[in-house]
Design a protein that fits this description.
- This protein has 141 residues and is of the alpha+beta class.
- It has a domain of 69 residues.
- Helices cover 33% and strands 19% of the residues.
- The protein has six helices and two strands; from the N terminus they run E-E-H-H-H-H-H-H.
- A two-stranded antiparallel sheet has the order 1-2.
- The longest helix has 11 residues.
- It starts with 24 loop residues before the first strand and ends in a 5-residue tail after the last helix.
C-alpha cells in the first residue's frame, strides 16, 4: 500500500534566516542653526538624518519570477488573445474562463493572477504549483 503525497501547500511563505545575521542598529542625527536676522525675524536651518544598518528583512525564497514573456501573455489575455505562457495556462480551462480568473484581467491585477497560480486556482488542473519558468522553457504542455 503506497501513500499519496499531496501537492505542496503554497499558501505560506518559507521563513529563512541569513546565516550571517548581525544585530541591527539605527543611527540618528540632527543639526540645527538658528540666527536672529532682525529684531522680529529669526532664520533657522535644520537637518535630520537616519541610517539603519543590518536591519532585519524577510525574503520570500519561493517568490515567482515574472518574465517579459509572461507579462506580454497577461496583456494579450486582457485583450482576449491566448498566447505564450498565460495562454497555455488559460487553455486548461477550455473556452470559458471562470470569473475568478477574468477578474484579474479586468482589474489589471497581474500580482493577483500570479498569486492565484501559486496558491491554487490552477491546482485542480495541474495538480500542484505551476512554475512559470518551466512553461517558458516548454517543459509543460
Amino acid at each position: 500500500m503506497s501513500a499519496s503525497v499531496p501537492p505542496q501547500d503554497r499558501s505560506s511563505t518559507p521563513l529563512l534566516f541569513d546565516p550571517n545575521l548581525r544585530t541591527p542598529y539605527v543611527n540618528q542625527w540632527n543639526l540645527s542653526i538658528q540666527r536672529q536676522i532682525f529684531r522680529d525675524t529669526v532664520l533657522e536651518v535644520a537637518y535630520v538624518g537616519n541610517q539603519g544598518e543590518h536591519l532585519f528583512r524577510m525574503i520570500n525564497a519561493n517568490q515567482s519570477v515574472l518574465t517579459p514573456d509572461f507579462v506580454a501573455g497577461f496583456k494579450a489575455a486582457q485583450s482576449g488573445i491566448r498566447t505564450g505562457v498565460v495562454g497555455k495556462l488559460l487553455d486548461t480551462y477550455g473556452t470559458t474562463l471562470p470569473s475568478s480568473v477574468t477578474t484579474y484581467f479586468t482589474n489589471n491585477d497581474i500580482g493577483g493572477f500570479v498569486n492565484s497560480i501559486d496558491t491554487g486556482v490552477f491546482n485542480n488542473v495541474t495538480g500542484g504549483r505551476v512554475d512559470c519558468s518551466r512553461f517558458d522553457a516548454g517543459l509543460l504542455p
